[in-house]
Amino acid sequence: MVEGKAVVVTGAGGGIGRDIALAMASHGAKVVVNDIGAALDGAGGSAGPAQQVVDEIRAAGGQAVPNTDSVADAASAARIVECAVESFGRIDAVVNNAGILRDRFFHKMSVDEWDAVLKVHLYGAYYVSRAAATHFKEQNSGAMVHMTSTSGLIGNYGQANYAAAKLGIVALSKSIALDMLKFNVRSNCIAPFAWSRMIGAIPTDTDEQRARVDKIKQMTPAKVAPLAVYLASEAAGAVNGQIFSVRNNEISLISQPRPVRSIHRSEGWTPQSIAEHAMPAMRASFYPLDRSADVFSWDPV
Asked: Catalytic: 157?
């Protein structure tokens, strides 16, 4: 599907990123395996995880190089893209997968916890995509795949920083799709459900929680990789600006915000008339305070 393409996968030292990198290589891509080798909260760093994935790809007969630059800095992110160009002579696709977690209830969240997550997820996706965009424009082709989350699309407890970043990535992706359409550049999002260390902190204190985690563990990162490979391929030439979710063997197309109900008043509105007329008329169409698990309430098979 991606024979001969040069692909950057960020955060590819483990979890979903690792499986995407392996799948890209197995389908013929030359892969930059980017990972700073940090802990889940972003602390520390090691070249080991990226190199291990590169070794796996090479052992299987594929082509790959490691990269340990951070996505959270513009100059560093640009070096990730340049690594592909220097190693393989070009860059054809970017998978923005790198991420960290600093979960905290909003009223307890620190500025540092907010900033760190936004820097890696949202700024990181922008920095890497922006560096690749120059090459994509010049060669009149390119594909970007961004990892979003139903924590942003729907909601979750204790993840205001992560949710804001992930929903921001959706808007970033749509803007890239619009702005770069004339250069044959595509941009799409995947909201993955998969067991990885990114969700390994889910509590397992009760039987119900343990049962939920056992179900999530069945959704392996390898289930997400085929869609990422497809979206990076020429076969996805007509797929642009979309959001998909992957849960085990289930792929869903996710809706995007559109007007649900409109109320018109020829003489205009006052706060009182809004209270008496507009809100009662629209209340039946209000969205409940759902979390991701409330909306995706069925077990994928």
From this structure: no
